[in-house]
Amino acid sequence: MKKQIALIAITLGLFSVGAPVASHYAAPTAIAATQTTKETVVPGSQIKLEGAVNVRDLGGYKTESGKVIKPNMLVRSAKLNTLTANDEAILTKQHRVAVDVDLRTPAEMKEAPDKKMAGVKYVKDPVVSDAEDKQNYKIADGQTGMIDYYKYFVDTAQGRQAYKTLFHELLTVPSNEAVLWHCSAGKDRAGFGTALIMTALGVNKSTIYKDYLLSNKYRKATNDQALAELKKKGASKATIKKDYYGLIVEKAYLDEAYKEAETHYGSMKGFLEKGLGLSQADLTKLQNKYLEK
After folding, report:
1. Is the Cβ–Cβ distance between 13 and 245 less than 8 Å?
2. DSSP state, 126?
3. pTM for this one?
4. What digits encode the pLDDT tens for the residues 3-41?
5. Among residues 25, 26, 65, 87, which one has the least CA distance to residue 222?
6. Tens of pLDDT along 87-105?
7. Where are the alpha helices (DSSP H) in the chain?
């Protein structure tokens, strides 16, 4: 597994800014707008920014109990190094972001540091270490490498600690402020973090996967640009195919994380409790804090 991580991280960090356009991937069916006490939100819709893509508010998603996630409290994103002043205003004023949890490696953070947003707490929270990232081996198969990458989130102490820290921020941030979490592309480390949060809030697995796969829609223009540049530089078809799997998400990737959680902890909820140390009181607090009727 270690042999896969470096090039995966490099691939994910290459291109994460671009204008979103309609996807040619099999994007999930749009979920109907849900009326909240404050506003109408469309679950899974993108927060349109000039300097970042794949930025989404989880507000409006329904739970199995019939409640919905409150808007302007939970935001997932790709890297934030090229935010404009207007982008910052949208995140901090409209979406009330008060905590920025950066799931990237220390090297990624140094290469493309997040824009500092006034009044926003910045948390360095790497899921993957630089030591792992420096394993400069070629990925034998892009798809297999990505599936292998997802095991790391569940099976390593650093991965578990990173997601435990994310939940600490969710539990301790003031109730009228939002937490944003991100990686480079906003699809893998951030995507798995999102799956964990939605699981903790009682969202069903089908909805979790629909949200996860939306990264293919919102990253399409960026991914197309990356592949076009590889082709322009004379990359072989095999290389382009390998990189393609590093740029997209597939159901099989998240399946692997679920499989590892079920094997070692009984279920994804078991991973939250036994792997991350969340108590039933913590889960109840999260649901009371982030859900509404």
Report:
1. no
2. -
3. 0.88
4. 455 445 545 554 444 433 333 333 333 333 333 345 577
5. 25
6. 999 999 999 999 999 999 9
7. 2-14, 85-89, 106-111, 130-133, 142-155, 157-172, 189-200, 205-213, 215-218, 220-232, 237-247, 251-265, 268-270, 280-290
